[in-house]
C-alpha cells in the first residue's frame, strides 16, 4: 500500500476533510463522549468555516492518502520550540496500518532542515478516556506531561492529557 500526505489547499479538499471528520468522529468517539458533544465539536472545530479559520491562523492540514484514497487527516501548528499536533484522525478501515507512525516521522524529518531545526518537541492533547489513542502515542514515544480540563463552551468540557515527545534527528 502506498502512503502519501497531501497539503489541504482547495475548497474541495476542505469539504473532504469536513466529511472525513464527520465519519471518523461519529464512528470513533461515540463510546468516549456524548453524541451531543461530538456534534458540537464537529461544528465548532471541524466545519468548513472552522477549518478555513484555523488555516488562516497558521494551522496546517494534510490529507492522509492510501493508494490515492482519503484515509484520514492531520493538522498541526508550529510554535517557537514545539509542534502541536492538533488533529490526527484515521478512518476505521485504515487504522493499524502505520499512518500515525508515518505522520510522526514527518516531523522528525522536518527538523533536519535549517528552517525547522529549532523545533524540539511534539505535543498532542488526548482525551483521558481515549485509551486507544493514548496507547498509540505512548508506543510512538510520547509521555503524559499533565492533565487539563478545558471548557469548550456549550456546557462541554474536554478532559485531556497533554502528551509530549522529543523529536528525533534523522
Strand count: 7
Average residue pLDDT: 91
Find the CATH superfamily.
Answer: Gcn5-related N-acetyltransferase (GNAT)
So, CATH architecture? Answer: 3-Layer(aba) Sandwich
Total domain units: 1
Shape: globular
Strand content: 35-45%
CATH topology: Aminopeptidase
Low-pLDDT runs of 5+ residues are none
Tally of alpha and pi helices: 5
Question: How many angstroms separate the termini?
Answer: 24 Å
Strand order across the largest sheet: 1-2-3-4-5-7-6
Q: Tell me, what is the CATH class?
A: Alpha Beta
Helix content: 25-40%
If you compute it from the alpha carbons, what radius of gyration comes out, rounded to the nearest whole angstrom?
15 Å
Going by helix content, strand content and strand pairing, the class is: alpha+beta
Structure description:
The protein has a single domain (3-166), classed as Aminopeptidase, CATH 3.40.630.30. The protein is globular. With 170 residues, it is α+β, with helices and mostly antiparallel strands. α1 runs antiparallel to α2 (35-46) and α2 crosses α3. Helix content is 35%, strand content 35%. The model has no long low-confidence stretch (mean pLDDT 91). A seven-stranded mixed sheet has the order 1-2-3-4-5-7-6, with helices on both faces.
Topology of this protein?
Blueprint: E1 3-7, H1 11-28, H2 35-46, H3 48-56, E2 60-66, E3 69-78, E4 82-90, H4 99-110, E5 121-127, H5 131-139, E6 143-153, E7 156-166
Parallel strand pairs: 4-5
Antiparallel strand pairs: 1-2, 2-3, 3-4, 5-7, 6-7
Helix pairs in contact: 1-2, 2-3
